[in-house]
Design a protein that fits this description.
By secondary structure, the protein is of the alpha+beta class. Helices cover 22% and strands 29% of the residues. A hairpin with a 5-residue loop joins strand 9 (138-141) and strand 10 (147-148).
């Protein structure tokens, strides 16, 4: 990786020390700002940035379900889930590349924590309803008081190359033709990251890789993952076998072809080339850009 992945940028002061300080949060609420987020992850935009609205419009003190995100220029920032929004809208996938570091960190965190709340209404331990606590950074079981925290699921994403000028890219069963990316998969319980890379690639395309090397990481709150990037070397002469149904097509592409695809844009490009690659908000593109420049 030559550049920090876009969603890994964050100049947000999370002010973790304030999450349990109810007096400080109430005092800061009057001048606080709120980011409203729909279940589809859409937010209001103010030109090229997020539209933050006065928190006091929601009530005199922090409202139930609001998540404290931190501070910016001394101002408290919160996020709330809403059913719908009007005006100019965007979501993280579409506008992430347009945001500055602070706003990128703000929206990524808001989407990740609100997505967790959507699925954490009942305790995984005892099945009882849970209620938000710690200004949105935990939930307590109403039966036992057991505390649960926002969940993040680790996933590996690996650029497989031949050690020279070819890279292996694949297409999932629900992707339109010509849209390819690097291989990825979730880490299993009790599994090291490097072991997961080897297992997932073997399961998805049937080849054994070596020289697994860490590249970087990126939060991916869809709904609540962190993508951990690696590179690995594979044999382009080994047969590709799509055993687990997660891949329907894969090919070894040359460096020049990848460079042309990057120059053409992303999956939304109107290029008629046989290869289209992910957009800049994905760590996959940063991995491909770094490899293409080598």
């Amino acid at each position: 990786m030559t550049d920090l992945p876009l969603l890994s940028r964050s100049a947000l002061d999370r002010a973790e020390e304030l999450r349990a300080d109810e007096d400080a949060l109430r005092a800061g609420w009057a001048g606080a700002a709120v980011l409203r987020v729909t279940r589809r992850g859409q937010v209001r935009l103010d030109g090229t940035d997020l539209l933050l609205e006065p928190a006091a419009e929601l009530g005199a003190e922090p409202v139930p379900g609001a998540v404290f995100l931190g501070r910016r220029d001394g101002r408290h920032l919160w996020a709330v889930r809403v059913a719908a929004l009007t005006g100019e809208l965007g979501d993280l996938r579409l506008i992430g590349h347009r945001l500055g570091d602070s706003s990128a960190g703000l929206l990524t965190t808001a989407v990740a924590v609100l997505n967790w709340h959507d699925s954490a209404g009942f305790s995984a331990l005892d099945g009882a309803p849970t209620t938000p606590t710690l200004s949105g950074w935990s939930r307590h079981s109403t039966s036992t008081g057991h505390e649960e925290f926002p969940r993040t699921d680790p996933a590996v994403i690996c650029l497989v190359h031949d050690g020279a000028d070819r890279v292996l890219l694949a297409r999932g069963p629900h992707w339109p033709e010509r849209r390819f990316s690097v291989l990825a998969g979730f880490v299993e319980a009790g599994e090291a990251l490097e072991t997961c890379v080897i297992r997932e690639i073997a399961e998805e395309v049937g080849i054994t890789v070596r020289d697994v090397r860490y590249l970087g990481s990126q939060p991916w709150p869809f709904p609540r993952s962190v993508m951990i990037g690696f590179s690995a070397v594979g044999d382009p002469e080994a047969p590709l076998v799509f055993a687990d149904g997660e891949i329907v097509e894969a090919h070894w592409f040359g460096r020049d072809e990848v460079r042309a695809a990057l120059a053409a844009g992303d999956w939304a490009s109107d290029s008629d080339a046989r290869l289209l690659v992910p957009g800049s908000v994905s760590i996959a593109r940063g991995m491909l850009e770094a490899w293409a420049k080598a």
